[in-house]
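ugh ok fine here u go
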Amino acid sequence: MTTKELTLLAEKNRKRLVEVVYRAKAGHIGGDLSCLNVMTALYFDVMKNLNPQEPKAADRDRFVLSKGHCVEALYVTLEAKGFLKPEVLDTLGQFGSILSGHPTIEVSGIEVNSGALGHGLSIGTGMAIAAKMDKKDWKTYVLMGDGEQGEGSIYEAAMAAGKYHLDNLVAIIDRNHLQISGNTEDVMPIDSIRERWSAFGWDVITMNGDDMESILNTFHAIDYTNKKPHLLISETTKGKGVSFMEGIAKWHHGVLNEEQCIAAVKEIEERIKSLEK
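structure:
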């Protein structure tokens, strides 16, 4: 897919996300929206051998959503990829649905249960080590939140990944600068991301996670033979793509009312129409 086609797909996923979260009356829409571009790029360009008819294919690339509270973004991406049927996604928030507020392996295409923050990178590191031991070429991608960087287990995994030279591991930090209790630099400063991860032996790259071209260029430039695990600092905007949500902490876990949902969908539809011209 071209950059424009992926941008269009991300906007369609964004519209679907807003509608799904509104219907469910629950979700972490601010962080969903900030990581949606990266997730779209991963599933439709970067990750290889993803097959809805064979979700456990041995040679598939693996994805771990460490910031599991943003599962709604993963659900709409899996739906677009063919892993999740629309009628199933429409049950989000309903009694008896297989869809939870965090990823579970009951859902096709989801590798691990996640949501207890700080666990995803440890799991991804183990996956990457397994691939090395088995002499396999598949890669592991882990998406973390920036507020999540306060979890100590992340740095244990970071040290291990550096020690074992896991160049088949890519970690992404969704750097939208906001967590549930406010700005990350007020809660637990992490602006030294580049320095601290470089010290652990990681290949650290910054990209504009709000821009599809920057995302693709960054992923395509990764050197998977350099004996270093890779960290992508994805600079994003909380609530990206819905103007009244952008950069506002309350939308970390905000719930849309009907008027807000209509306004958000209209705004996204205008961009979709422009991209389809």
